[in-house]
Design goal:
0% helix, 326 residues, mainly beta, six-stranded antiparallel β-sheet, 25 strands, four-stranded antiparallel β-sheet
C-alpha cells in the first residue's frame, strides 16, 4: 500500500464489494454485489502485489540493513525482494529458497553478514552465502520447540519459541529466564526500545521488560499478568505501542500507559508506527489505521487480492518503509 502519508482520498461504491483483483497492468477490478464489475485505474499507485515467486501465505517481512531490500518468509519459502526508487516497483531478487515448513521470522547474523537465521515451525535454520537453509546444530539440545521470532542486539541473536526464550552468542545458545528463575513459555514477540532494552511478549504470561533485576513482568490496569501479548513497537519519540488481547495501549518512557482502542476479539497481531501519531495494525479483518491522539480509527483496509482474505496472524507481517509504503 503506497501513499499512506499523502493527502487522503476515497472512492465510494454504493454496493457490497465481493472481491478485488489486480491485473498485470495494475488496474484494480472490483466485483460488486449489485453494480457488476468495475475497473478502477486510479489505484495503480496505491495497491500492488509483490512477487515472492510463490503463491503462499507470508508471515514475516524484515529490512535488509544497508540495502533497499526486504527478506520475506512464509509458508514453504524464504526470499529477498528489492525496491527500486526509479520506477517505484517491487521485484524479486535472484534469491529464493524452498523451505519445507513455515518461516515465521528471519535475521542477519550480527557478526557474519553472509549468514541469515531463519525461525521456523521445525526449529532454527541458517543459510550462508545464499545456500539452501540448514538446521542449526544445537549441541546442548536446548532449542527443541517451534520457533516464532528473532531479534538481534549487538552481537547476540535472541530467539522466541513456543517453549521459551533463548540468546545465541558465538554460536552457543543459552536459555533466558525471568527474574524469579521461571521459564517464559510461549514467546510470541520481541522488541527493543530506544534505550536498547528488551521487551518480551508472551502468550499466556503477559508482557515483560528488561530491568537491572532481570526480566520483570509489566502489569497495570491495562496489561494483565496472563494476557496474550501480540505486538510491541517503540517509535522515535520513545512511546511504546503494545497489543494485548483486545486492547491497544501506548506507554511513555516512564511506562505510563493509556488505552487507545479496544477491538474484539483481539486488537491485532502486528503493528507499525506510520508517523508519531498514527499506527497501522493487522488482524483477522485486514488493516486499521489509528490516530493515537484522538483514539479514533481513521481507516479500515480489508481487501481480497486473491482467493483468500487478508489476515495478519504474525507479529512480523507488517512493515513500513518510513516514507509511504506499507
Amino acid at each position: 500500500i503506497s501513499g499512506l502519508n499523502a493527502k487522503s482520498s476515497s472512492l465510494n461504491i454504493n454496493s457490497t464489494i465481493n472481491e478485488l483483483f489486480i491485473d498485470t497492468e495494475e488496474n484494480v477490478w472490483i466485483a460488486t454485489n449489485n453494480l457488476g464489475l468495475k475497473k478502477i485505474t486510479c489505484l495503480r499507485k496505491a495497491l500492488s502485489k509483490v512477487n515472492c515467486d510463490k503463491e503462499a501465505a507470508a508471515f514475516s517481512i524484515k529490512k535488509v540493513n544497508g540495502h533497499n531490500k526486504l527478506r520475506v518468509g512464509g509458508d514453504g519459502f524464504f526470499s529477498i525482494i528489492s525496491s527500486t526508487e526509479e520506477n517505484n516497483k517491487i521485484s524479486l531478487e535472484n534469491n529464493f529458497h524452498t523451505v519445507p515448513t513455515i518461516v515465521w521470522d528471519t535475521c542477519a547474523d550480527p557478526t557474519d553478514k553472509s549468514c541469515i537465521w531463519i525461525a521456523t515451525d521445525d526449529g532454527l535454520l541458517f543459510s550462508k552465502n545464499n545456500n539452501p537453509p540448514e538446521k542449526f546444530n544445537d549441541k546442548e539440545n536446548l532449542i527443541t520447540s517451534p520457533n516464532r521470532v528473532l531479534l538481534v542486539r549487538k552481537d547476540e541473536i535472541w530467539l522466541g519459541t513456543i517453549g521459551g526464550l533463548f540468546k545465541i552468542k558465538n554460536g552457543t545458545p543459552e536459555e533466558i529466564q525471568a527474574f524469579d528463575g521461571s521459564r517464559f513459555g510461549y514467546v510470541y514477540t520481541l522488541s527493543l526500545d530506544n534505550d536498547n532494552r528488551m521487551w518480551v511478549g508472551t502468550l499466556g504470561k503477559g508482557l515483560w521488560v528488561e530491568t537491572d533485576k532481570g526480566m520483570c513482568p509489566l502489569t497495570n490496569e491495562l496489561l494483565t499478568p496472563f494476557g496474550n501479548t501480540y505486538s510491541i513497537v517503540t517509535n522515535n519519540s520513545g512511546e511504546t505501542l503494545v497489543i494485548q488481547e483486545e486492547r491497544l495501549v501506548v506507554g511513555d518512557k516512564n511506562l505510563n500507559f493509556r488505552l487507545i482502542v479496544r477491538e474484539n476479539p483481539i486488537a491485532g497481531w502486528t503493528a507499525v508506527w506510520i508517523n508519531k501519531t498514527t499506527i497501522a495494525t493487522g488482524s483477522n479483518n485486514g488493516i486499521l489505521l489509528i490516530d493515537t491522539e484522538t483514539s479514533k480509527i481513521i481507516q479500515q483496509i480489508n481487501l481480497h487480492l486473491g482467493k483468500s482474505a487478508w489476515q495478519f496472524t504474525s507479529t512480523r507481517s507488517l512493515y513500513f518503509d518510513g516514507t509511504d509504503k506499507l
